[in-house]
Amino acid sequence: MMKPAIVLLSGGLDSATCLALARSQGFAAYCLSFNYGQRHNAELKAAARVAQALGASEHRVVDLGLAQFGGSALTDAAIAVPTGGVQPGIPVTYVPARNTIMLSLALAWAEVLKSSDIFVGVNAVDYSGYPDCRPEYIAAFETMANLATKAGVEGHRLHIHAPLIALSKAEIIRTGAALGVDYGLTVSCYQADDEGRACGVCDACRLRAEGFAAAGLSDPTPYRT
Amino acid sequence: MMKPAIVLLSGGLDSATCLALARSQGFAAYCLSFNYGQRHNAELKAAARVAQALGASEHRVVDLGLAQFGGSALTDAAIAVPTGGVQPGIPVTYVPARNTIMLSLALAWAEVLKSSDIFVGVNAVDYSGYPDCRPEYIAAFETMANLATKAGVEGHRLHIHAPLIALSKAEIIRTGAALGVDYGLTVSCYQADDEGRACGVCDACRLRAEGFAAAGLSDPTPYRT
After folding, report:
1. φ and ψ at residue B159, rounded to 5 degrees
2. Which backbone phi and psi does A30 adopt, to 5 degrees?
3. pTM of the full predicted structure?
4. Which residues on chain B are in Cβ contact (under 8 Å) with A69?
5. Which residues contact A137 (CB under 8 A, 6 or more apart)?
6. What is the predicted ipTM?
Protein backbone atom coordinates (compact mmCIF):
# COMPACT_ATOMS: atom_id res chain seq x y z
CA MET A 1 0.00 0.00 0.00
CA MET A 2 1.27 3.48 -0.84
CA LYS A 3 2.06 5.79 2.07
CA PRO A 4 -0.29 8.77 2.27
CA ALA A 5 1.09 12.29 1.96
CA ILE A 6 -0.68 15.62 2.20
CA VAL A 7 0.16 17.90 -0.75
CA LEU A 8 -0.67 21.60 -0.62
CA LEU A 9 -2.02 22.37 -4.08
CA SER A 10 -2.72 25.91 -5.19
CA GLY A 11 -3.21 25.16 -8.87
CA GLY A 12 -0.06 27.05 -9.79
CA LEU A 13 3.08 25.79 -11.46
CA ASP A 14 5.10 25.10 -8.31
CA SER A 15 2.51 23.07 -6.40
CA ALA A 16 1.68 21.02 -9.53
CA THR A 17 5.36 20.11 -9.82
CA CYS A 18 5.47 19.32 -6.11
CA LEU A 19 2.50 16.96 -6.50
CA ALA A 20 4.20 15.23 -9.45
CA LEU A 21 7.32 14.75 -7.29
CA ALA A 22 5.30 13.29 -4.41
CA ARG A 23 3.60 10.85 -6.79
CA SER A 24 6.95 9.93 -8.39
CA GLN A 25 8.27 9.07 -4.91
CA GLY A 26 5.42 6.60 -4.47
CA PHE A 27 3.11 8.57 -2.19
CA ALA A 28 -0.66 8.44 -2.35
CA ALA A 29 -1.44 12.16 -2.61
CA TYR A 30 -4.15 13.82 -0.52
CA CYS A 31 -4.31 17.29 -2.01
CA LEU A 32 -5.42 20.31 -0.02
CA SER A 33 -6.46 23.65 -1.49
CA PHE A 34 -7.87 26.76 0.15
CA ASN A 35 -10.57 29.18 -0.75
CA TYR A 36 -9.25 32.18 1.16
CA GLY A 37 -10.81 34.99 -0.80
CA GLN A 38 -7.90 35.14 -3.20
CA ARG A 39 -8.50 37.23 -6.30
CA HIS A 40 -7.15 34.49 -8.51
CA ASN A 41 -9.95 32.02 -7.84
CA ALA A 42 -9.24 30.44 -11.23
CA GLU A 43 -6.43 28.72 -9.32
CA LEU A 44 -8.94 26.50 -7.52
CA LYS A 45 -10.34 25.20 -10.79
CA ALA A 46 -6.77 24.60 -11.92
CA ALA A 47 -6.03 22.72 -8.67
CA ALA A 48 -8.93 20.35 -9.33
CA ARG A 49 -7.70 19.70 -12.91
CA VAL A 50 -4.12 19.13 -11.75
CA ALA A 51 -5.14 16.79 -8.90
CA GLN A 52 -7.08 14.63 -11.33
CA ALA A 53 -4.42 14.65 -14.05
CA LEU A 54 -1.69 13.60 -11.62
CA GLY A 55 -3.67 10.81 -9.97
CA ALA A 56 -4.37 12.31 -6.54
CA SER A 57 -6.20 9.99 -4.14
CA GLU A 58 -8.33 12.86 -2.87
CA HIS A 59 -8.65 16.64 -3.26
CA ARG A 60 -10.22 18.84 -0.61
CA VAL A 61 -10.88 22.58 -0.60
CA VAL A 62 -11.08 24.27 2.81
CA ASP A 63 -12.82 27.62 3.14
CA LEU A 64 -10.72 30.04 5.13
CA GLY A 65 -11.76 33.55 6.12
CA LEU A 66 -8.38 35.21 5.53
CA ALA A 67 -9.91 38.08 3.57
CA GLN A 68 -11.43 39.51 6.78
CA PHE A 69 -7.91 40.25 8.00
CA GLY A 70 -6.96 42.01 4.75
CA GLY A 71 -3.40 43.25 4.47
CA SER A 72 -2.64 41.73 1.07
CA ALA A 73 -3.27 42.65 -2.55
CA LEU A 74 -4.39 39.04 -3.07
CA THR A 75 -7.26 39.24 -0.59
CA ASP A 76 -8.06 42.95 -0.32
CA ALA A 77 -9.68 44.57 -3.35
CA ALA A 78 -8.52 47.99 -2.09
CA ILE A 79 -4.84 47.06 -2.65
CA ALA A 80 -3.81 46.89 -6.33
CA VAL A 81 -1.73 44.00 -7.67
CA PRO A 82 1.60 45.52 -8.82
CA THR A 83 2.25 45.14 -12.53
CA GLY A 84 5.41 47.21 -13.02
CA GLY A 85 7.94 44.44 -12.51
CA VAL A 86 9.38 42.49 -9.57
CA GLN A 87 10.73 44.79 -6.83
CA PRO A 88 13.05 44.00 -3.92
CA GLY A 89 11.54 43.44 -0.45
CA ILE A 90 8.28 41.90 0.73
CA PRO A 91 5.60 42.63 -1.89
CA VAL A 92 1.99 43.66 -1.18
CA THR A 93 0.90 40.30 -2.61
CA TYR A 94 2.30 38.67 0.54
CA VAL A 95 -0.62 37.16 2.48
CA PRO A 96 0.10 37.36 6.25
CA ALA A 97 0.97 33.95 7.70
CA ARG A 98 -0.49 32.17 4.67
CA ASN A 99 1.94 29.26 4.49
CA THR A 100 1.79 28.79 8.26
CA ILE A 101 -2.00 28.60 8.17
CA MET A 102 -2.05 26.22 5.21
CA LEU A 103 0.64 23.96 6.67
CA SER A 104 -1.25 23.93 9.99
CA LEU A 105 -4.38 22.66 8.28
CA ALA A 106 -2.31 20.12 6.35
CA LEU A 107 -0.96 19.02 9.72
CA ALA A 108 -4.49 18.43 11.02
CA TRP A 109 -5.37 16.27 8.01
CA ALA A 110 -2.03 14.42 8.23
CA GLU A 111 -2.72 13.56 11.83
CA VAL A 112 -6.20 12.22 11.04
CA LEU A 113 -4.86 10.14 8.09
CA LYS A 114 -1.87 8.99 10.18
CA SER A 115 0.39 10.44 7.51
CA SER A 116 3.95 11.50 8.35
CA ASP A 117 4.54 13.48 5.16
CA ILE A 118 3.46 16.91 3.99
CA PHE A 119 4.56 18.36 0.65
CA VAL A 120 4.65 22.09 -0.01
CA GLY A 121 5.88 23.76 -3.20
CA VAL A 122 7.61 26.75 -1.64
CA ASN A 123 10.63 28.10 -3.40
CA ALA A 124 13.34 30.27 -1.91
CA VAL A 125 15.13 31.28 -5.09
CA ASP A 126 12.32 32.97 -7.02
CA TYR A 127 10.31 33.51 -3.86
CA SER A 128 9.67 37.22 -4.42
CA GLY A 129 10.61 38.13 -0.86
CA TYR A 130 8.01 36.08 1.06
CA PRO A 131 9.47 35.27 4.50
CA ASP A 132 7.51 32.01 4.75
CA CYS A 133 9.26 30.50 1.72
CA ARG A 134 12.72 30.28 3.33
CA PRO A 135 14.39 26.97 4.27
CA GLU A 136 14.87 28.07 7.91
CA TYR A 137 11.13 28.73 8.12
CA ILE A 138 10.26 25.24 6.81
CA ALA A 139 12.72 23.65 9.27
CA ALA A 140 11.20 25.60 12.18
CA PHE A 141 7.70 24.58 11.13
CA GLU A 142 8.74 20.91 11.07
CA THR A 143 10.23 21.18 14.57
CA MET A 144 7.07 22.85 15.87
CA ALA A 145 4.80 20.32 14.10
CA ASN A 146 6.54 17.41 15.80
CA LEU A 147 5.86 18.99 19.20
CA ALA A 148 2.28 19.93 18.31
CA THR A 149 0.89 16.54 17.48
CA LYS A 150 0.48 12.97 18.58
CA ALA A 151 3.34 12.13 16.19
CA GLY A 152 5.76 13.89 18.49
CA VAL A 153 4.35 12.27 21.61
CA GLU A 154 4.25 8.80 20.05
CA GLY A 155 7.74 9.05 18.63
CA HIS A 156 7.36 8.88 14.86
CA ARG A 157 8.58 11.94 13.02
CA LEU A 158 6.57 14.11 10.70
CA HIS A 159 8.39 15.49 7.65
CA ILE A 160 7.72 18.69 5.76
CA HIS A 161 8.95 18.10 2.21
CA ALA A 162 9.80 21.25 0.26
CA PRO A 163 11.47 19.69 -2.78
CA LEU A 164 11.45 22.90 -4.86
CA ILE A 165 12.94 25.12 -2.21
CA ALA A 166 16.40 25.46 -3.76
CA LEU A 167 15.38 25.20 -7.44
CA SER A 168 15.13 28.04 -9.92
CA LYS A 169 11.86 28.48 -11.77
CA ALA A 170 13.51 27.01 -14.87
CA GLU A 171 14.65 23.95 -12.92
CA ILE A 172 11.15 23.49 -11.49
CA ILE A 173 9.67 23.61 -14.99
CA ARG A 174 12.19 21.15 -16.37
CA THR A 175 11.58 18.80 -13.41
CA GLY A 176 7.83 18.89 -13.91
CA ALA A 177 8.07 18.54 -17.68
CA ALA A 178 10.24 15.43 -17.22
CA LEU A 179 7.52 14.00 -14.93
CA GLY A 180 4.83 14.70 -17.51
CA VAL A 181 3.15 17.71 -15.84
CA ASP A 182 0.85 19.51 -18.28
CA TYR A 183 1.49 23.13 -17.31
CA GLY A 184 -1.40 24.15 -19.52
CA LEU A 185 -3.62 22.96 -16.63
CA THR A 186 -2.01 25.35 -14.13
CA VAL A 187 -2.67 29.02 -13.41
CA SER A 188 0.00 31.31 -11.91
CA CYS A 189 -1.37 34.80 -12.55
CA TYR A 190 -2.37 36.82 -9.43
CA GLN A 191 -5.31 38.26 -11.34
CA ALA A 192 -6.33 35.58 -13.82
CA ASP A 193 -9.84 35.89 -15.22
CA ASP A 194 -12.52 33.24 -14.67
CA GLU A 195 -11.25 31.23 -17.63
CA GLY A 196 -7.77 31.21 -16.09
CA ARG A 197 -6.30 33.62 -18.67
CA ALA A 198 -3.25 35.46 -17.34
CA CYS A 199 -2.53 39.21 -17.25
CA GLY A 200 1.12 38.82 -18.25
CA VAL A 201 2.33 41.73 -16.13
CA CYS A 202 2.01 40.76 -12.43
CA ASP A 203 5.06 39.34 -10.60
CA ALA A 204 3.74 35.76 -10.86
CA CYS A 205 3.28 36.08 -14.63
CA ARG A 206 6.73 37.61 -15.05
CA LEU A 207 8.49 34.93 -12.99
CA ARG A 208 6.64 32.19 -14.87
CA ALA A 209 7.42 33.57 -18.31
CA GLU A 210 11.10 34.05 -17.41
CA GLY A 211 11.17 30.48 -16.08
CA PHE A 212 9.85 28.96 -19.29
CA ALA A 213 12.25 31.08 -21.34
CA ALA A 214 15.21 30.02 -19.17
CA ALA A 215 14.13 26.37 -19.36
CA GLY A 216 13.98 26.61 -23.13
CA LEU A 217 10.39 25.36 -23.15
CA SER A 218 7.28 26.96 -24.59
CA ASP A 219 4.77 28.32 -22.08
CA PRO A 220 1.22 27.00 -22.60
CA THR A 221 -0.25 29.88 -20.52
CA PRO A 222 -3.29 31.48 -22.15
CA TYR A 223 -3.09 35.29 -21.92
CA ARG A 224 -5.83 37.87 -22.11
CA THR A 225 -5.20 40.23 -24.99
CA MET B 1 -1.84 54.44 23.16
CA MET B 2 -2.18 50.86 24.35
CA LYS B 3 -0.24 48.21 22.45
CA PRO B 4 -2.48 45.79 20.57
CA ALA B 5 -2.39 42.08 21.41
CA ILE B 6 -4.28 39.19 19.85
CA VAL B 7 -6.00 37.04 22.48
CA LEU B 8 -7.32 33.59 21.57
CA LEU B 9 -10.68 33.39 23.30
CA SER B 10 -12.66 30.17 23.44
CA GLY B 11 -15.20 31.28 25.99
CA GLY B 12 -13.84 28.86 28.58
CA LEU B 13 -12.33 29.56 31.96
CA ASP B 14 -8.67 29.57 30.87
CA SER B 15 -8.95 31.93 27.92
CA ALA B 16 -11.12 34.35 29.94
CA THR B 17 -8.37 34.48 32.58
CA CYS B 18 -5.77 34.94 29.86
CA LEU B 19 -7.72 37.89 28.45
CA ALA B 20 -7.96 39.45 31.92
CA LEU B 21 -4.17 39.09 32.29
CA ALA B 22 -3.52 40.72 28.90
CA ARG B 23 -5.79 43.62 29.84
CA SER B 24 -4.12 43.95 33.27
CA GLN B 25 -0.75 44.24 31.50
CA GLY B 26 -2.06 47.21 29.54
CA PHE B 27 -2.74 45.61 26.18
CA ALA B 28 -5.63 46.54 23.91
CA ALA B 29 -7.16 43.10 23.33
CA TYR B 30 -8.18 41.89 19.87
CA CYS B 31 -9.99 38.65 20.64
CA LEU B 32 -10.18 35.80 18.17
CA SER B 33 -12.61 32.89 18.40
CA PHE B 34 -13.28 30.02 16.01
CA ASN B 35 -16.35 28.30 14.80
CA TYR B 36 -14.78 24.95 13.94
CA GLY B 37 -17.77 22.67 14.21
CA GLN B 38 -17.18 22.11 17.91
CA ARG B 39 -20.05 20.44 19.73
CA HIS B 40 -19.89 23.00 22.50
CA ASN B 41 -21.01 25.95 20.40
CA ALA B 42 -22.31 27.60 23.58
CA GLU B 43 -18.63 28.54 24.04
CA LEU B 44 -18.90 31.09 21.23
CA LYS B 45 -21.74 32.90 22.95
CA ALA B 46 -19.67 32.82 26.13
CA ALA B 47 -16.66 34.25 24.25
CA ALA B 48 -18.73 37.22 23.09
CA ARG B 49 -19.96 37.87 26.66
CA VAL B 50 -16.45 37.58 28.10
CA ALA B 51 -14.90 39.86 25.45
CA GLN B 52 -17.43 42.56 26.25
CA ALA B 53 -17.18 42.17 30.02
CA LEU B 54 -13.38 42.44 29.97
CA GLY B 55 -13.21 45.46 27.66
CA ALA B 56 -11.87 43.88 24.46
CA SER B 57 -11.20 46.34 21.63
CA GLU B 58 -12.58 43.89 19.09
CA HIS B 59 -13.87 40.32 18.89
CA ARG B 60 -13.82 38.29 15.70
CA VAL B 61 -15.07 34.79 14.99
CA VAL B 62 -13.43 32.92 12.10
CA ASP B 63 -15.22 29.99 10.48
CA LEU B 64 -12.91 27.04 10.11
CA GLY B 65 -13.78 23.77 8.40
CA LEU B 66 -11.99 21.48 10.89
CA ALA B 67 -14.97 19.15 11.20
CA GLN B 68 -14.39 17.82 7.67
CA PHE B 69 -11.14 16.27 8.90
CA GLY B 70 -12.87 14.59 11.87
CA GLY B 71 -10.67 12.66 14.26
CA SER B 72 -11.97 14.25 17.47
CA ALA B 73 -14.93 13.76 19.77
CA LEU B 74 -15.34 17.56 19.75
CA THR B 75 -15.93 17.77 15.99
CA ASP B 76 -17.13 14.30 14.98
CA ALA B 77 -20.61 13.29 16.17
CA ALA B 78 -19.66 9.62 15.66
CA ILE B 79 -17.10 9.80 18.51
CA ALA B 80 -18.62 10.03 21.99
CA VAL B 81 -17.33 12.52 24.59
CA PRO B 82 -15.91 10.41 27.47
CA THR B 83 -17.70 10.93 30.76
CA GLY B 84 -16.11 8.28 32.99
CA GLY B 85 -13.34 10.43 34.41
CA VAL B 86 -9.97 11.77 33.21
CA GLN B 87 -7.72 9.02 31.79
CA PRO B 88 -3.96 9.08 31.09
CA GLY B 89 -2.77 9.67 27.50
CA ILE B 90 -4.13 11.78 24.64
CA PRO B 91 -7.94 11.85 24.91
CA VAL B 92 -10.37 11.56 21.97
CA THR B 93 -11.39 15.17 22.65
CA TYR B 94 -8.00 16.22 21.25
CA VAL B 95 -8.60 18.17 18.01
CA PRO B 96 -5.73 17.53 15.58
CA ALA B 97 -3.42 20.56 15.27
CA ARG B 98 -6.05 22.84 16.81
CA ASN B 99 -3.75 25.18 18.71
CA THR B 100 -1.37 25.38 15.76
CA ILE B 101 -4.19 26.36 13.42
CA MET B 102 -5.60 28.92 15.85
CA LEU B 103 -2.20 30.45 16.63
CA SER B 104 -1.50 30.64 12.88
CA LEU B 105 -4.64 32.66 12.29
CA ALA B 106 -3.79 34.84 15.28
CA LEU B 107 -0.41 35.37 13.64
CA ALA B 108 -2.08 36.59 10.45
CA TRP B 109 -4.18 39.11 12.36
CA ALA B 110 -1.19 40.19 14.46
CA GLU B 111 0.77 40.90 11.32
CA VAL B 112 -2.01 43.00 9.81
CA LEU B 113 -2.45 44.96 13.09
CA LYS B 114 1.34 45.29 13.47
CA SER B 115 1.00 43.60 16.85
CA SER B 116 3.95 41.75 18.39
CA ASP B 117 1.94 39.95 21.06
CA ILE B 118 -0.33 36.92 21.00
CA PHE B 119 -1.94 35.54 24.16
CA VAL B 120 -3.07 31.93 24.44
CA GLY B 121 -4.54 30.29 27.53
CA VAL B 122 -2.90 26.89 27.21
CA ASN B 123 -2.06 25.08 30.38
CA ALA B 124 0.44 22.26 30.78
CA VAL B 125 -0.50 21.15 34.29
CA ASP B 126 -4.15 20.24 33.86
CA TYR B 127 -3.77 19.91 30.11
CA SER B 128 -5.36 16.46 29.87
CA GLY B 129 -2.58 15.10 27.66
CA TYR B 130 -2.86 17.50 24.70
CA PRO B 131 0.59 17.72 23.03
CA ASP B 132 -0.02 21.29 21.84
CA CYS B 133 -0.32 22.64 25.41
CA ARG B 134 3.30 21.98 26.39
CA PRO B 135 5.84 24.79 26.97
CA GLU B 136 8.27 23.33 24.40
CA TYR B 137 5.50 23.46 21.80
CA ILE B 138 4.77 27.14 22.52
CA ALA B 139 8.48 27.99 22.32
CA ALA B 140 8.78 26.18 18.97
CA PHE B 141 5.73 28.01 17.63
CA GLU B 142 7.26 31.36 18.62
CA THR B 143 10.52 30.52 16.86
CA MET B 144 8.65 29.47 13.73
CA ALA B 145 6.39 32.53 13.83
CA ASN B 146 9.36 34.88 13.85
CA LEU B 147 10.69 33.22 10.70
CA ALA B 148 7.26 33.12 9.03
CA THR B 149 6.41 36.77 9.04
CA LYS B 150 7.57 40.26 8.22
CA ALA B 151 8.35 40.65 11.94
CA GLY B 152 11.23 38.25 11.57
CA VAL B 153 12.52 39.89 8.41
CA GLU B 154 12.17 43.41 9.80
CA GLY B 155 13.79 42.52 13.10
CA HIS B 156 11.16 43.10 15.78
CA ARG B 157 10.25 39.99 17.71
CA LEU B 158 6.84 38.47 18.05
CA HIS B 159 5.97 36.98 21.44
CA ILE B 160 3.59 34.15 22.22
CA HIS B 161 2.37 34.74 25.78
CA ALA B 162 1.10 31.64 27.56
CA PRO B 163 0.74 33.04 31.09
CA LEU B 164 -1.28 30.08 32.41
CA ILE B 165 1.04 27.38 31.15
CA ALA B 166 2.54 26.45 34.52
CA LEU B 167 -0.50 27.21 36.72
CA SER B 168 -2.86 24.68 38.26
CA LYS B 169 -6.57 25.08 37.56
CA ALA B 170 -6.99 26.41 41.10
CA GLU B 171 -4.25 29.01 40.56
CA ILE B 172 -5.85 30.08 37.27
CA ILE B 173 -9.20 30.54 38.99
CA ARG B 174 -7.66 32.53 41.87
CA THR B 175 -5.76 34.71 39.38
CA GLY B 176 -8.88 35.46 37.38
CA ALA B 177 -11.02 36.04 40.46
CA ALA B 178 -8.46 38.58 41.70
CA LEU B 179 -8.71 40.37 38.34
CA GLY B 180 -12.51 40.44 38.55
CA VAL B 181 -13.33 37.75 35.99
CA ASP B 182 -16.95 36.66 36.25
CA TYR B 183 -16.63 32.92 35.64
CA GLY B 184 -20.41 32.71 35.42
CA LEU B 185 -19.97 34.11 31.89
CA THR B 186 -17.68 31.26 30.82
CA VAL B 187 -18.51 27.77 29.55
CA SER B 188 -16.06 24.87 29.93
CA CYS B 189 -18.22 21.79 29.26
CA TYR B 190 -17.43 19.78 26.09
CA GLN B 191 -21.12 19.17 25.57
CA ALA B 192 -22.88 22.18 27.04
CA ASP B 193 -26.44 22.74 25.86
CA ASP B 194 -27.53 25.84 23.94
CA GLU B 195 -28.03 27.76 27.18
CA GLY B 196 -24.46 26.92 28.23
CA ARG B 197 -25.53 24.47 30.95
CA ALA B 198 -22.81 21.93 31.71
CA CYS B 199 -23.02 18.12 31.80
CA GLY B 200 -20.86 17.80 34.93
CA VAL B 201 -19.22 14.52 33.84
CA CYS B 202 -16.90 15.27 30.87
CA ASP B 203 -13.18 15.86 31.50
CA ALA B 204 -13.56 19.64 31.15
CA CYS B 205 -16.37 19.74 33.72
CA ARG B 206 -14.41 17.54 36.12
CA LEU B 207 -11.21 19.62 35.87
CA ARG B 208 -13.19 22.82 36.33
CA ALA B 209 -15.09 21.57 39.39
CA GLU B 210 -11.88 20.26 40.97
CA GLY B 211 -10.23 23.62 40.28
CA PHE B 212 -12.93 25.62 42.04
CA ALA B 213 -12.89 23.21 44.97
CA ALA B 214 -9.09 23.45 45.27
CA ALA B 215 -9.25 27.25 45.00
CA GLY B 216 -11.81 27.34 47.80
CA LEU B 217 -14.22 29.31 45.61
CA SER B 218 -17.78 28.53 44.62
CA ASP B 219 -18.33 27.56 40.99
CA PRO B 220 -21.00 29.64 39.25
CA THR B 221 -21.40 26.98 36.49
CA PRO B 222 -25.05 26.18 35.71
CA TYR B 223 -25.55 22.43 35.36
CA ARG B 224 -28.25 20.50 33.56
CA THR B 225 -30.10 18.31 36.01
Report:
1. -115, 135
2. -105, 105
3. 0.88
4. 108-109, 112
5. A99, A131, B144, B147, B148
6. 0.86
Name the residue ranges covered by the structural domains of chain B. Answer: 4-215
Cβ distance of A97 and B148 shorter than 8 Å: yes
Query: Who among B96, B148, B153 is closest to A100 (CB)?
Result: B148
pLDDT digits (tens, 9 = 90+) for B144-181: 999 988 765 566 789 999 999 999 999 999 999 999 99
Q: pLDDT (tens digit, 9 = 90+) per residue, A105-134?
A: 999 899 888 899 999 999 877 555 678 888
Q: How many CA atoms lie within 13 A of A114 on its CB side?
A: 4
**Region A4-215: CATH code:** 3.40.50.620
Report d(CA B177, CA B210) in Å as an integer. 16
CA distance B42 to chain A (A): 21
Higher pLDDT, B30 or B78: B30
Per-residue model confidence (pLDDT) at position A211: 92
Answer for the pair A103, B101: CB distance below 8 angstroms, yes or no. no
Kindly report the nearest CA distance between residue B40 and chain A, in angstroms: 20
